[in-house]
């Protein structure tokens, strides 16, 4: 090394001490600001009456999915009318929407995930790629509905033939 880039011991120690002190000061101001912005980001717009009605039709609780996977759907206690979806280490805030077919759609407020609930199963989709994140998810209520359909079938809307009793 050339002589111009060599520092003597006291200068090196002072540089390290100043760097540590600046890091501590930055951490003192940045961490609370990041926490404040995170808590503001978690607050959602007030839910509409339609959204609240859709939230009442959501099937809450644990779901067992294909390949031993599981998801959990729960009410968002901080944002009435919104739903929390958890899968593996991922968590999403979902907005319930009723579809024209009667299925319940839970749309991620950040437009990443989409949960679709139909009579016999639910699935979580990646909104950007259109691929399924996890499929074949069944809640206790869906399991009961499938069993009831087996024992008491309903007539098909696509057939003139009545259901067999």
Key terms for this structure?
165 residues; alpha+beta; eight-stranded antiparallel β-sheet; 3 helices; 8 strands; 33% helix
Explain what you see.
By secondary structure, the protein is α+β, with helices and mostly antiparallel strands. Strands 1-2-3-4-5-6-7-8 form an eight-stranded antiparallel β-sheet. Helix content is 33%, strand content 27%.
Topology:
Layout: H1 9-41, H2 49-57, E1 61-64, E2 70-75, E3 83-87, E4 90-98, E5 104-108, E6 113-117, E7 122-126, E8 132-137, H3 140-151
Antiparallel strand pairs: 1-2, 2-3, 3-4, 4-5, 5-6, 6-7, 7-8
Q: Count up the helices.
A: 3
Measure the end-to-end span.
Answer: 92 Å
Global mean pLDDT: 82
Range of strand content: 25-35%
Unreliable stretches, pLDDT < 50, 5 or more residues?
33-39
Radius of gyration over all CA atoms, rounded: 26 Å
Please summarize what this structure is.
With about 160 residues, the protein is an alpha+beta fold.
């Amino acid at each position: 090394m050339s002589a111009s880039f060599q520092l003597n011991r006291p200068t090196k120690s002072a540089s390290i001490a100043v760097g540590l002190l600046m890091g501590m000061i930055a951490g003192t101001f940045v961490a609370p600001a990041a926490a404040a912005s995170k808590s503001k980001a978690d607050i959602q717009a007030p839910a509409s009456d339609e959204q609240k009605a859709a939230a009442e039709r959501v099937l809450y609780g644990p779901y067992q999915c294909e390949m031993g996977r599981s998801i959990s759907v729960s009410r968002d206690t901080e944002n009435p009318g919104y739903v929390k979806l958890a899968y593996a280490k991922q968590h999403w805030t979902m907005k319930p929407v009723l579809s024209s077919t009667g299925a319940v759609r839970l749309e991620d407020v950040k437009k990443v995930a989409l949960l679709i609930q139909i009579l016999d199963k639910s699935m979580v989709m990646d909104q950007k790629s259109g691929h399924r994140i996890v499929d074949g998810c069944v809640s206790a209520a869906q399991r009961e509905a499938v069993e009831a359909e087996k024992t008491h079938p309903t007539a098909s809307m696509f057939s003139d033939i009545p259901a067999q009793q």
